[in-house]
Design brief:
Strand content of chain A: 35-45%
Structural class of chain B: alpha/beta
Largest interface: A-B, 23 and 19 residues
Shape of chain A: elongated
Strand content of chain B: 15-25%
Number of helices of chain B: 20
Largest sheet of chain B: 6 strands, parallel
Oligomer: heterodimer
Helix content of chain A: 25-40%
Radius of gyration of chain B: 24 Å
Radius of gyration of chain A: 19 Å
Distance between the termini of chain B: 70 Å
Helix content of chain B: 25-40%
Number of helices of chain A: 4
Order of helices and strands of chain A: EHEEHEEHEEHEE
Chain lengths: 173, 569
Amino acid sequence: MNSTTNKRHVISILMENEAGALSRVAGLFSARGYNIESLTVAPTEDASLSRMTLVTRGNDDIIEQILKQLNKLIDVVKVHDISEFDHIEREMMFIKISASNNEDCASIKRMSDIFKARIIDVKNKTFTIEISGDRSKLDAFVSAVSDYNIIEIVRSGCIGISRGSCALKAEEA
Amino acid sequence: MELTGAKIFVECLKAEGVDTIFGYPGGAVLYLYDELEKAERDGDIRHILARHEQGAIHAAEGYAKSTDKPGVAIVTSGPGATNAVTGIADAYMDSVPLVVFTGQVPRHLIGNDAFQEVDIVGITRPCVKHNFLVMDVKDLAETIKKAFHIATTGRPGPVLIDIPKDITDDNAKCEFHYPESLDMRSYNPKVQTKESDIKQAVEMILASERPIIYTGGGVIMSGASNELKDFTQRLNFPITNTLMGLGAYPATDKQFVGMLGMHGTYEANMSMHYSDLIIAIGARFDDRVTGNIEKFCPDAKIIHVDIDPASISKNIKVDCSIVGDVKPVLLELGKELDRRGAKPDQQALANWWKRIATWQEKNCLAYNTNEKTIKAQYVMQKFWEISAGDSYVCSDVGQHQMWAAQYYKFDKPNRWINSGGLGTMGFGLPAAMGVQLANPGADVACVTGDGSIQMCIQELGTCKQYDLPINIISLNNGFLGMVRQWQEFFYQKNYAMSYNEALPDFVKLAEAYGHVGVRIDNPADVEGALKEALDDKKRLYFLDFITEAEENVYPMIPAGAGLNEMKLL
């Protein structure tokens, strides 16, 4: 494998749910000049732990350093580059589109159906649509509705999980 | 019994066996100082009052580097905390175990831009191993336990604990219990060295023809000098030390080829460059060691032993990585060599030593002398002789630091105490205080220059208060010498701001603080002055050596060059 190519990696991080934990990760990336494409964080089924999904790009050497440096953070319990394994990724997006006539309204509705998106609010010909999927699906939907007037887009950033029974868990003490 | 936060703080320090704490009081830590003073009266903990918080932290570093204990310091909130940051960053870069307590404004004022408030946990996050803000007195004891545990295990480093004032007052009380052990699911410094890595390393060692052992500060921190000596001598391999690693292997031994790197010896750098195997132990391939990494040691396979996996293959890709504490790893390597009962090609090794001898013949540390002006190199050489190589040498940062490293031959670990990673001018004097306090009766020197000494000169007051008979060896050339050297080589001799105008009379200054000051400007007086200072075990001597103004540190690897492209005198 060519170690100099910048591949996209999805890194799952399990960490103590403490004040400042997020900024330790964000600070590490900015201090060492690593790139963050997206970052999401929320508590897990164990409220004392947070799970973060971080998408970054880098060659093999950089990714190796990123994983080592993350492991070095005292609050980090576990780190896993799930893109190295069979896994599922999802991202959620809200997109607000305004239609100028009834014909547009109908085609926005049709497009949403095709992409299995849900219209969650309509007001004065302004549609708010919810859609989830992997990044390319969301990109495709944005491009499919780009002829209409896109008012606002909010994307959650990617979350990921490995397939099968393996899981990112704190070991029992 | 319920105790106040301040009392708990002191009880925790006692439980950790802390005998000395360095600090500077202020509003946010008054309750803590109230209890500290009582502990001092009871003879439990001695508090050393620095004259600036930076000095307190460097002193704690000196204490830690010359003992096997962590350094402990306490400063107040706001400016007290920010003044400590340079010292904390210094400790982080050189992996010094420190526990630093900072006062914080009361909890209800946090985030209000209160008087002397600063987010020190935020400020220090990138330069500590870990830090804590204690928001409940019930968490205080366990947090302190964690801090000492984290600071002293694995790759050591500074840990900061920020304590709001109202956690320490008479209203904040809780049952005191100091945890005996800790179970942190997110931090496990124990590493299990892989047997297959040991086997691979020994395979590489046995196959080598031009090997070199390159060791750093990790050997000293691991207390593995004896093991390193056994390992090196059984193999009869050449060995070089980094700036941080000096003393780990006896410098006067014939297998030692000197320090490597930017101002290392010609033979050390050439041996590295032309080697076919580098055994890196507790060193981190710092840019001052590698020179241009594109040109780094083209034929060498590399074995890297380090306790911090993130140090391995960070700057230089290695062929065999061994994650582990240096001492047990060296013992394991020895056992595997015993088991194999084989030796590397002895004829090839003999040829390699012959080739090294030709590099040694260059005598790269030779310097020109004359009868009129004092050469800084000469002062260091004489100091090494007169102190029988047994002084602690704390250094500031600059040319004098390199001369001390080149000409003082350290045969013992923990004797050479300097700021390697951060390169902090002002480190030397306060570090020497910490060393002297930890090692009463020992000879402790501060090697410094006319620039560096002025960065923490106020600590002369601390030295007087605690009667610290440090020997300050000031190599005074009237310049910020290393800056001037670079300007001479790379900036067409444009000595921008590197000339020290309006230098104080250091003799009078030393006297004003109650010490002995001596100005030496004749080479014939160098030995006498050094002897006088070393013989006097009671008083601090400030020896102000007026040295050759535009002397350069040689040899030198210019920026962007490889290890085989040294500039010799």
